[in-house]
Amino acid sequence: MSTTTASDSKRKAPAGERVADWADGRLGIYGLAKANMRKIFPDHWSFMLGEICLYSFIIIILTGVYLTLFFHPSMNEIEYHGSYVPMQGIRMTEAYASTLDISFDVRGGLLIRQIHHWAAVIFLAGMFVHMMRVFFTGAFRKPREVNWLFGFLLLVLGMFTGFTGYSLPDDLLSGTGVRFTQGAILSMPIVGTYISMFLFGGEFPGHDMVARFYSIHILLLPGIMLGLVVAHLILVFYHKHTQFPGPGRTNNNVVGMPLLPVYMAKAGGFFFLVFGVIAVISGMFTINPIWTMGPYRPDQVSTGAQPDWYMGFAEGLVRVMPGWEINLWGHTLVLGVFIPLVVFGLMLAAIALYPFIEAWITGDKREHHILDRPRNAPTRTALGVAWVTAYMIMLVGGGNDIFATHFHLSINAITWFVRIAFFAGPVIAFIVTKRICLGLQRRDRDKVLHGRESGIIKRLPHGEFVEIHEPLSQAQRYSLTAHEQYTPAEIGPTVDENGVERKPTRMQKLRAKLSKGYYGEGNQIPKPTVEEYQEITSGHGHH
Amino acid sequence: MSSQEISKESLPSEQDTAHGTAVAENPFADPGLPPHKPRIQDIDERAAKRSERTVALLFTTSMLATVAFIASFVIFPVDQIVYVWPLGHVSATNLSLGLTLGLALFCIGAGAVHWARTLMSDHEMADDRHPIEATPEVKAKVMADFADGARESALGRRKLIRNTMFGALAMVPLSGVVLLRELGPLPEKKLFHTAWSRGKQLINMNTNEPLRPEDIVVGSLTFAKPEGLEEDDHEFNTEIAKAALMIVRILPEDIKDKRELEWSHDGIVAFSKICTHVGCPISLYEQQTHHVLCPCHQSTFDLSDGARVIFGPAGHALPQLRIGVNDEGFLEALGDFPEPVGPAFWERG
After folding, report:
1. What residue spans in chain A does CATH classification 1.20.810.10 cover?
2. Is the pTM of this model over 0.90?
3. Can you tell me the ipTM of this complex?
4. What distance in Å separates the CA atoms of residue A78 and residue A87, rounded to the nearest whole number?
5. pLDDT in tens, B6-50
6. Number of other CB atoms surrounding residue A128 within 10 Å
7. What is the CATH number of domain A37-371?
8. Chain B within 8 Å of A199 (Cβ-Cβ)?
9. A40 phi and psi, to 5 degrees?
10. A369 touches chain B (CB under 8 A)
11. What secondary structure does DSSP assign to A446-509, as a single string?
């Protein structure tokens, strides 16, 4: 408005530009867009896994808000008179009755409930697989350790948000799960009974559980998670995405498609794909039919009670642990339940700590933007597979009754199998994985030095048959040799330059030992060198 | 860590990058970005038109699916059940709404992705990365600014202010912690007592009638609650969570535990129904062996031998309720359980 020329130019500008100008004058959007509108995102199928988590999280929030409009988080007891005939006349909490109403009397209510639950299950599964991708490709290395921690917190908070959520309907299954949790809390030395009393507002189950879990489930935990998701995404933008090794891709660039339009169309479209698939699943397949077993009563239970899958490994730990109890000086140490609780925490903590442990072993303070192929980090890959193995074995433990009935096995035998396999399985998995990784490294080395097996058999004049190996292209050779190889850290000289004996600390010795386990002889296959390559390619004919 | 001087040597050297001469000499050097290969849509306008039509068709399908969603919402009564192979009997509303909403969403996604893959430019581009770490100049400036700010605040010099401020900030959250005290009562001896006491009759959970010894036959499993506890009591769930009782009859000569026999009446024994592992109600009874199994975590107890644990994660036997018969011939409790029922805890002893 200040000058005529300015208002002239405004009149000429199209409407969209004028809106953008208005916003820029107040929010500075042009500066933001300059840096980000054509931001480059590398393409790889595994980069979609994080998107699945983000989108299912959005879906959970959308459907969750809808559910709060109908759900009554109250443990007041009423007699049910809704439209679900088998439950009519039965005493239940308002929480359970309103969940029945959502399922049977609200049009589309059941669909939204099922989308909410399916999306939650997929959210957790997505986070697991996404974290495996990040782990096995080494994407957690500097500068992304903090973002790994954000992701780890999202996983843990997601588990507890899921648990508090599926406890809300106050049906027989969910109440059994809450009872299990309360029993586990009681096992904590000294503070157990206090935490239980404070959490439930008195003795179990009391009248406060649903209201308290409700505020934890819809406000406290998702509020924190929303903040973490935003921080996670800001860091993804700030660090720029990692990429797999390939021609033209270096640690100092990022190769891919621009945000506008390609990535926006693909990622935006993928949101609709994820939402669409979850909606179809929810329309077709029942999840958590809370109406089958009736309201929760602490003296009733059904067989085959299972938590949602992501709590299954905690369930397994509790099921297969021997019932150790120590009574000393008038106190009880409930190891049979407390040890599983601690192991549950330790297995999660291992995820959080790993990036820092590996960084300490390598001593590498550089930034890493090129991903490792899992085979090129055999010890890390083997450790990851060992963890996953322990996790999977505990999932079997958590479903030992289901395995027993479906496969006609003895539940005692399954329990003993899980007890042993929890310790033996990861060791075997570690050894086998490492062997496979080293084998694949050897294959890569052979391919680089001798070329690709073409499948063409040639007969030489003297009768010998040979297979023709086609040399790889420069790009392929580069991709297969782009990974870096560390040499194991040494303790260093034990005598310094003045001849004074220097005793290596225990940590230095440990680090040297671990470093050898990661990068020592036999723990990685040396990359082919230029000399080796030239020697082989110059002397044609002999193998 | 004291590893800096060691680490340099064990770090690998950076990989060769694309330099014209390097490619000729080094068979493993980076040849740089590969040339762009055109797609069929880039060369053939008819193929591009086909892609355009496919995308438009997907978007149109989405619109139709949304119309179908609204129609389903209006047409199907909320309680209509239909048979659909292979799903079986399902809610018509739920299935139709789910499928139409899913289709409407999926087609938008499929259209956008197909558009991006076939018609938008697929030229790969490279952006430079810049180190996350600040340059030494920036760092020096920040450090100087911070030193200025810290000096001007005089926080380090005026220790009295600093110490009292830290004290105040450390103490103020205590108010919040204190408020949490109201979340629940102290445990005290609450977990040690149940609704059972001397003289309370054993009431059949199913019939709500007091039990007579002759109601209980060998091989049967009966659940009972204490006299005076009704299902519409405000605290019913909390009380039954501790007081739930299971009653079986075992031939007295089959009872191996001496105290169990003493506390029984004519072979009728009453045990807590709440598992001593994490508190599930135990409900699976094997008549021949007198074993009961908790369906949650498979702890198994031998009711003929003091309900000791014979398998599973439970840590101790089920508490027994001492029972007798009153003057009217009904089963009654001769006291509360001698020990806390349910999961073990620190104060249990």
Report:
1. 37-371
2. yes
3. 0.92
4. 12
5. 455 567 765 544 444 456 678 888 999 999 999 999 999 999 999
6. 18
7. 1.20.810.10
8. yes
9. -95, 130
10. yes
11. HHHHH-EEEEEEEE-TTS-EEEEEEPPPHHHHHHHH-S--PPPPP---SB-TTS-B-PPPHHHH
